[in-house]
């Protein structure tokens, strides 16, 4: 392992997770179980959601706790027994720290699920063993595949309600494996469990001895979080040009931003797009002091040896390894707006730190989530529908394909009148 990778291993000890699935598959209960079993819930939280009265100052066991209530924090969620908004929860083990997003299962809240999954490195797809694979399960799985989530874990939950029947689990596993194979998903893990009783969550339990794989928590602790982020081309969207104008720093000009991918070293030859002006890196400045080398996803300030034209929205790359640029692009879109997407409509495309006016040139097709077939000649994309569109831009956009770079290959679409986010796009 290189010295850089060792540094990255020390820095990136946090795994971002998302839980998805259909209604009542047990997502909130699962997170509650993980919080309890990893000691991630405070005593006052446990007392607040206890099922029984009588023990005012102590929770005797997890059976006394309404696990779902640990994450369903909105009053409407408690009243209806459903998850409406994305709930983020933190827990940790001696091996790793986690941030898990509990996403809504209802179709009308799919837009919230897209938000929760957009920054995740791994996803847990819960399936109720009694109901099998539901339409919303397929919709969420397809979105996760489009988002290029590195690790997908299919957790067949509520096995206690089907007598821990191995045949039921195997049927669901085979169906999900076939569905994911069609989309080119490579890292699929399937396991049975009971979130309510705790079998195969943090401990094996006594009821699923026929399953020889790891528990869910063991699986999460051993997933790779590094990927190939250090080997990707260097990309740094400029967020701010820092000109302090002080007596001590009369000529200081620093370009601030988060490194989207790759690495940069002092002395590297870099170019700013779209201007095409180039220079070499003079300093890599951070809050903790200057560095000789920086890597994604660090936030840094770069100073250059030459005064070149760089503004917010520009992108810094290595010379000879620039991003693609075009005034027309094709993208897969998850539509989350109340009003449908139609041809000739105008939107603002927000890509990294850049915003560009755009028009929908064509709707190439929308996808049938059940068969993954492309339905040609679509007139519109309604809320929660997924399809491929072509956009014409007012000025060139500098980007990578989404399959090559999740940061520089993604964008959101903003309604020009309401300023609402209405679409999440992945550049093809």
TrEMBL record:
Q: What is its EC number?
A: 2.7.7.4
Where in the sequence is the signal peptide annotated? none
Into which EC class is this enzyme placed? transferase
Drop me one GO molecular function for this one. GTP binding
Which InterPro entries does the record cross-reference, listed alphabetically? Answer: CysN_GTP-bd (IPR041757), CysN_II (IPR044138), CysN_NoDQ_III (IPR044139), EFTu-like_2 (IPR004161), G_TR_CS (IPR031157), GTP-eEF1A_C (IPR054696), P-loop_NTPase (IPR027417), SO4_adenylTrfase_lsu (IPR011779)
Swiss-Prot/TrEMBL keywords: ATP-binding, GTP-binding, Nucleotide-binding, Nucleotidyltransferase, Transferase
Give one GO biological process term.
sulfur compound metabolic process
Q: Which residues form the Tr-type G domain?
A: 12-232
For this entry, the protein name equals sulfate adenylyltransferase
- Recall the taxonomic lineage recorded for the source organism: Bacteria, Pseudomonadati, Pseudomonadota, Candidatius Mariprofundia, Mariprofundales
């Amino acid at each position: 392992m290189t010295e850089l990778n060792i540094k990255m291993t020390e820095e990136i000890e946090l795994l971002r997770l998302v839980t998805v699935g259909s209604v009542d598959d047990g997502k909130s209960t699962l997170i509650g179980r993980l919080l309890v079993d990893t000691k991630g819930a405070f005593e006052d939280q446990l007392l607040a959601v206890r099922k029984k009265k009588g023990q005012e100052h102590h929770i005797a066991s997890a059976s006394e706790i309404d696990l779902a209530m640990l994450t369903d924090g909105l009053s409407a969620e408690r009243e209806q027994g459903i998850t409406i908004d994305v709930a983020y929860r933190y827990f940790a083990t001696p091996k790793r720290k986690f941030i898990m997003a509990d996403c809504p299962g209802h179709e009308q809240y799919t837009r919230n699920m897209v938000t929760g999954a957009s920054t995740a490195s791994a996803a847990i797809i819960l399936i109720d063993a009694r109901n099998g694979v539901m339409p919303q399960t397929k919709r969420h799985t397809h979105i996760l595949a489009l988002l290029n989530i590195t690790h997908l874990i299919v957790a067949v939950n509520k096995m206690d309600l089907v007598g821990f029947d191995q045949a039921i689990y195997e049927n669901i596993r085979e169906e999900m494996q076939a569905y994911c194979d069609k989309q080119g998903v490579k890292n699929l893990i399937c396991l049975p469990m009971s979130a309510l009783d705790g079998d195969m969550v943090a401990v094996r339990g006594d009821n699923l001895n026929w399953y020889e794989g790891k528990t869910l928590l063991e699986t999460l602790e051993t997933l790779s979080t590094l990927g190939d982020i250090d080997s990707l081309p260097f990309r740094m969207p400029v967020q701010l040009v820092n000109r302090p104008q002080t007596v001590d720093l009369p000529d200081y000009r620093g370009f601030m931003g988060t490194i989207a991918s790759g690495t940069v070293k002092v002395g590297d030859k870099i170019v700013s797009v779209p201007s095409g002006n180039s220079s070499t890196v003079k300093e890599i400045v951070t809050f903790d002091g200057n560095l000789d080398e920086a890597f994604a996803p660090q936030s840094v300030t770069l100073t250059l040896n030459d005064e070149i034209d760089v503004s917010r929205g520009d992108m810094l790359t290595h010379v000879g390894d620039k991003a693609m640029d075009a005034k027309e692009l094709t993208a897969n879109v998850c539509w989350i707006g109340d009003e449908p997407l139609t041809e000739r409509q105008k939107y603002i495309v927000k890509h990294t730190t850049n915003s560009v006016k755009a028009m929908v040139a064509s709707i190439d097709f929308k996808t049938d989530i059940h068969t993954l077939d492309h339905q040609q000649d679509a007139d519109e994309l309604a809320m929660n529908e997924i399809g491929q569109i072509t956009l014409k831009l007012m000025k060139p956009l500098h980007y990578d394909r989404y399959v090559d770079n999740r940061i520089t290959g993604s964008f959101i679409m903003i309604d020009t009148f309401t300023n609402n986010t209405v679409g999440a796009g992945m550049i093809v």
